[in-house]
Amino acid sequence: MIFKKALARFFVPILSLSVVPLGFNGGISANAAVAAQWPLDSDYSEVTTYFDPNRNTGNIYAGHNAIDIPADYNANIYAPIGGVCVSAGWMDDYGILIILRHEALNVYTFYAHCSYANVSPGQTVSAGEVIGHVGNTGNSHGNHLHFGICDTLTGGWPDIMYYDPLTYFAYETEQPEDNCFCTEDYAGTYVTQNIETYLNVRSGHGSDFPSVGRLYPDSEFTVTKADGNWAHIESDGVSGYCSMKYIKRKDDIGSNMTISGELVPNGEIVQGTAFEVGGVITSNLPITRFTGGIYKADGAIPVYVHETSPNALKYDLSGEFDSKMLFNKLEPDTYVYKVEAEDSSGKVYPLIGKSFMVTSKAAAAPSFSGDLNGDGSITVADGILLQRHILGMVNLSDEQLKAADLTGDGVTDVFDMIMIRKILVS
Fold first, then answer.
1. Where does residue 128 fall: left (phi above 0), alpha (psi -120 to 50 degrees), or beta otherwise?
2. Cα–Cα distance between 389 and 139 in angstroms, integer?
């Protein structure tokens, strides 16, 4: 992984863990930094608040006991090295706090302000495993990871000594090369086999890539494609790669696609009205092409159309697609709202085809005689409007002229003004 310049100046040579004596309690110097993975994806490498060694004086207000790394809400948090989860839950100002114990180094790493935790106390984690997700919980101002290292817990709270994560660890700057030559010949429903504990789901084709999840004995999951050695898998929201040595096919995947939660234009829509569309497309095979939009009544002439290649098993219409459908810009006419998608087998599924009509916006008529501005009552504003008309300053519509003829003589003049004045005075 290549990190931004903001972090690059903190890299130090990567050394083997063997240089660290077991039970060492004084921390590790920059000259003996431990090889580790950066705790977030490489896109999130900017540090906005740095570690302050003054925090080791024992005064909790003396300095910052960690580093702050801004990231998107729910971005993955990875274990930099292997360890055991000590705690994962709410800790006041820290919000949702995850603490890992690293026995060989005699230190703890902690991760604050999470949106939620993926690990629980007592759970063993591997380097690169997703342990939680970035949030804005506790005393926090914006989504970020508060990432720290300490050698003591007091009442379950991180305590001194604290260490600077930018010098304590040396973060690898490159991922292994990941070449994919997989085909859909292996696509199907699979189960794990010959495993006693769990099978790691990796971020790439090979055991050198970090773990992003686990498959347990007798797990059932989907393989979308493979090369005979490594398979692309989908399991309970986890996407990644696993070794084919420990899995076997259960059923072949047939081409099938459905849509749920459709929100479509219906009947008549008044011109200028905004309208949202929605729905989630679910496919057995990857969705290679999605096309949707608004067409003229014959369904052939496009008005607003969006096409994309999700290359995923799901596509949510309420995201990027919805913003392209400008219903409030449509002129009065009859239209067709269409959605179709194609999967990796080449089969095309027409999912939505709904006719609707945009009608002209009708002008609001005055509610009763004397109500020239149509607000449902006779007020000074109506008198002023009539006066301006009599003086030749404004022209009234036919509906307004009818409302202004309080005398019923078919003429709008000063006698109607006298009538409006009487109504206002009374």
1. left
2. 62
